[in-house]
Each structure stands twice: as structure tokens, then as C-alpha cells.
Amino acid sequence: MSIVQFKPYVKVFLNEEIKKATLSRVWEDNFEGIVYDMNDLGIFILKKIESLCEEIVLRQEISENFPNDIEEADEIINFLKTENYIEIISSDYYKPDYLEKDFGRIIPLLSIFETDSINRYKIQENIMNKKIGVIGSGTMGFSVISKLVSNGIKNFVLIDNDIVEKSNLTRQPLFSLKHINKLKVEVVKQHIEDRIEDSDVLAINKYVTKIEDLSILKDVDLIINCADDIKTSLIEKYIFENNIPTFFGGGYIGHVGRIDPLVIPGFTKCFSCNEKKLKDEFDDIGTPLKNHYKESTISSMSDFISSVLSFEVLKFLANPEKSLLLDKFLFVNFSDYSIKEIKPNNHFPTDCSICNSNSLIV
Ligand SMILES: [Zn+2]
Fold it and tell me: Residue 236 in contact with residue 262, Cβ under 8 Å?
């Protein structure tokens, strides 16, 4: 038995009077949707799909009501399917009960990452089996991790050497008074264990000063750098040597934030090349003068940066082709909620020893 149905989040508006239908997909069509002229056959098909019709019944009823239009009906159904408006769910569709029970409210969104060979339940299962290395368990690291845990990720390696101070509570709502003076990695580890069953968290209290300190990350599937005081040159050397995709995190001052690129050895340029080109994007306006106020921000901004970053992590784990941050920076301005994308990938230097350590890069 196969059921024909609209894919998750697909919106269909039908105006039978003027014979037009507006179809909208969550990923492709933003808020707008695409308007299609409809004939009686098209209207019939859309209404049958709305009623969760069995595929065999749909085809029977088409042949009874539109005997001369079987070919056109096939074209319409194929079009709806290839354009990701509908899906045909067969009885052997992979949908384990344990996933549906615990994650059924978030799995539908994964349909935007599906391919012919992997459905949303399998994607969820794959994501849950990944191991993520996070450098830094402060404001950004904790925020990103908390969102990943909500999505079912439970295997982590955490590195940080800092303790929670009272001032951290102004930027990280997940820290509380009882955490003051405790190691951040231990607080984050406890949070993960309190939030998800069967977690596996290795929490390392260490200040990274040399490349060997990163060797505990050798078997992770992905690294997220959320530390603001560790040399990125150290991290990028390690990840190119060990072929580990890495998100370089981001930063924020006041109401302005930045989300840094996803670096995939053998596929993108290294972080330093990206950053060097980013500097070239801006005019040389002189040397910055010292401002004696402490650089500050608020939890809304750090949480926003972390939210984007954690969703990009999910996208990468679900389907790397959907990644947005390849050789790309995003700048966020909270004064008007604008987001500016900068992709400084033209004319990258070709003499970079890190980039050239992998011959796949073009
Ligand atoms: Zn490079």
C-alpha cells in the first residue's frame, strides 16, 4: 500500500473559481509560493492528495473520471513529486517507532535534506550517531551544544579550561548561580546528561596551547570552534592534517555579530585564507584607536549567532550539500536584524601551505 500526500510544510491554496493553485515549499519558496493555472484534472488530483489517498485508488479514480487524460495525470503527479510538493509513502518506508515517539516533532523538517537514497528518519538516526568535538564551553559553545542536544545529538568531546564566573550569567542563560566556580566543561557535560539518554561525553579540562592538545578530537566527525582565545592557526593545521570538517564559530560585539565559515579540508579554503580575503573586502581606513570600554554583548546576540551556527551544523550533518557557510561569512546587525553575506572566495592565494596540504582544492 502506498499513500500519496503533501510533503511536510508544503502549503497548497486552491482557488477553484479562477482555477489557480498556489503551492509553497518551506525551503525553496520563502513566504511566496508559486501560482499554477489548473484544469479540472489538476484540481481533482490536488483534492485527492489532500484526502491522503492510496496511490492505487488515485489512479483508479483518475481513469474513471478522466479516461482520456491518463498521460497528463501521470505528468502532473510526476511534476508534483520531482518538485518536492508530494511524496509517496510505501508500506516499507523506514520509520522506526522509537524515533517517531521521541523526535517526531522535529523530524519532518529534515525532509528538506532528503535524497532518493535517504529519508528523514534515516537522516535523524545518522545525526544522532555523530560525534561532535567542541572547543570552548562558554557562552557560544554551551548554546550551540544545547541546541544540538535538543536535536538528538549525544556524543561529544568537550575542551575548555575555564570556570564559570558570575559575570558569565549575563551572557549565557544556561549557567546558574550553583555553577559558579565549577569547570565549564563539567557543567556542560551535566547538562547533556540531564537532557538526553545514553549520552557519551568526554569532558577535557585543558587550555589548548599546542597541536598535540587537539589529538583527543581525532575520532570526531565534526569540530566546532567556540573558543575565543585559541589560535585558529593551530586548529586549522590540525584539521587539515586529520581531515576533519570544522565550523570556525563566530563572534559578537554589542549588537553586531559574525558567523565564520565551515572549513572542509579538501573542499574549501582554510580559515586563514578566508579571513585574509575578508580583510581585503573592506577598504583600508586606518589603524583602529583603542576604546577603553570593555567589549560587551548581550545573550540575545550570542544566542542568535549560536542558533544560526547550530542549524548550520545540523544542515551539514544532514546533507553537506545544503551547507551555507562554505568559504562564507555572515554578518548580523541587531539594529535592524539585517544579515549580510560575504563570500570572499575569488582570487584566493594559491601559495598557502595549509590549503595546499590537500590536493583536492581547486
Ligand atoms: Zn589557506
Answer: no
